[in-house]
């Protein structure tokens, strides 16, 4: 069955969301920004073309193996010392800490990396603010559903995240997965109609939904196994998940970017408990709140 009405409704919601963002966020000078980013990473034009077409692109070796090992050790200390801020999901397998940038200079470096924020602005064309850095630690267990608790979009329209693997991430220990092309406006109506997805603004989907999209539209859910230090640049308005772990452990950092107007007390409450000092930093950065 094809649900054309649901597809049209989701497309309209998508367009309205994009227009609302364009009307409230500062427009970026893309030509100038691309020149600046190319001075940091010459392959930026290739990365930009890839994320626009696919919705996600990987950069291996963004951090060294040695730096990742140091970060994992620091991560374990934070899990122990900031136990009150650890949020637990996936039947206890997925432990998340928001505000890692407030705990260690290594994590602050990733949070404040100007290339990452700039690339997200280059893709979307509008100003972004890095709300917080998530530290994610997930282990294999019979009940784990993977990082993010299954297939979903983070938002409709446009959303940007930068994800850094801190541990080697093979096919069996939770690689990031992405439904290629699902970030495109043209695809949201097709995915909803042919995949029989729930109407927007719903953002959660099950395995059967994704399987129908892949079968009917001839697309694939691409996995991204890669060594520690690999960076993923992602438009998380596309359908994605962390694959459920069959073995081992995965450590990762994720920067959460929003348009400044989207950050308020409700957003702070959404991700609480945050590492102490994080909410205060956000309020200082955005004094209208």
What are the salient characteristics of this protein?
alpha+beta, 289 residues, single chain, 10 strands, 19% strand
Walk me through this protein's architecture.
By secondary structure, the chain is of the alpha+beta class. It has a single domain, classed as Jelly Rolls, CATH 2.60.120. The protein has ten helices and ten strands. It has helices spanning 4-24, 30-40, 44-54, 65-81, 105-112, 114-124, 185-195, 207-217, 265-271, 278-285; strands spanning 56-59, 87-89, 94-98, 129-139, 160-165, 176-179, 221-224, 231-235, 240-242, 249-258. The strands form two sheets. The chain has a seven-stranded antiparallel sheet, covered by helices on one side. It has a three-stranded antiparallel sheet with strand order 7-6-9, with no helix packed on it. Helix 2 packs antiparallel against helix 6 (114-124) and helix 7 (185-195) packs across helix 8. It starts with a helix and ends with a helix. 44% of the residues are buried.
Layout: helices, strands, pairs:
Blueprint: H1 4-24, H2 30-40, H3 44-54, E1 56-59, H4 65-81, E2 87-89, E3 94-98, H5 105-112, H6 114-124, E4 129-139, E5 160-165, E6 176-179, H7 185-195, H8 207-217, E7 221-224, E8 231-235, E9 240-242, E10 249-258, H9 265-271, H10 278-285
Antiparallel strand pairs: 1-8, 2-3, 3-4, 4-10, 5-8, 5-10, 6-7, 6-9
Helix pairs in contact: 1-7, 2-6, 7-8
């Amino acid at each position: 069955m094809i649900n054309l009405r649901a597809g049209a409704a989701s497309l309209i919601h998508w367009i309205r969301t994009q227009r609302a963002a364009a009307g409230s966020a500062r427009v970026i000078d893309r030509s100038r920004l691309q020149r600046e980013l190319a001075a940091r990473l010459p392959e930026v034009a290739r990365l930009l073309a890839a994320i626009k077409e696919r919705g996600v692109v990987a950069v291996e070796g963004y951090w060294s193996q040695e730096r990742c090992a140091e970060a994992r050790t620091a991560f374990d200390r934070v899990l122990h010392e900031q136990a009150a801020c650890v949020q637990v999901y996936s039947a206890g397998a997925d432990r998340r800490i928001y505000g890692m940038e407030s705990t260690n200079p290594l994590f602050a470096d990733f949070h404040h990396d100007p290339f990452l924020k700039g690339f997200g602005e280059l893709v979307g064309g509008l100003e972004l603010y890095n709300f917080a850095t998530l530290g994610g630690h997930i282990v294999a267990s019979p009940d784990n559903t993977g990082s993010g608790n299954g297939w979903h979009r983070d938002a409709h329209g446009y959303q940007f995240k930068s994800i850094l693997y801190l541990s080697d991430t093979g096919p069996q220990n939770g690689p990031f997965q992405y439904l290629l092309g699902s970030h495109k406006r043209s695809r949201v109506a097709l995915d909803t109609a042919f995949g029989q997805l729930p109407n927007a603004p719903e953002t959660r989907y099950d395995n059967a939904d994704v399987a129908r999209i892949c079968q009917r539209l001839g697309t694939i859910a691409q996995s991204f196994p890669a060594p520690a230090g690999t960076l993923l640049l992602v438009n998380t308005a596309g359908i994605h998940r962390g694959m459920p772990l069959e073995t081992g452990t995965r450590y990762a950092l994720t920067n959460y970017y929003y348009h400044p107007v989207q950050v308020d007390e409700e957003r702070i409450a959404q991700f609480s408990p945050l590492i102490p000092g994080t909410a205060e930093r956000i309020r200082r950065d955005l004094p209208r709140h």
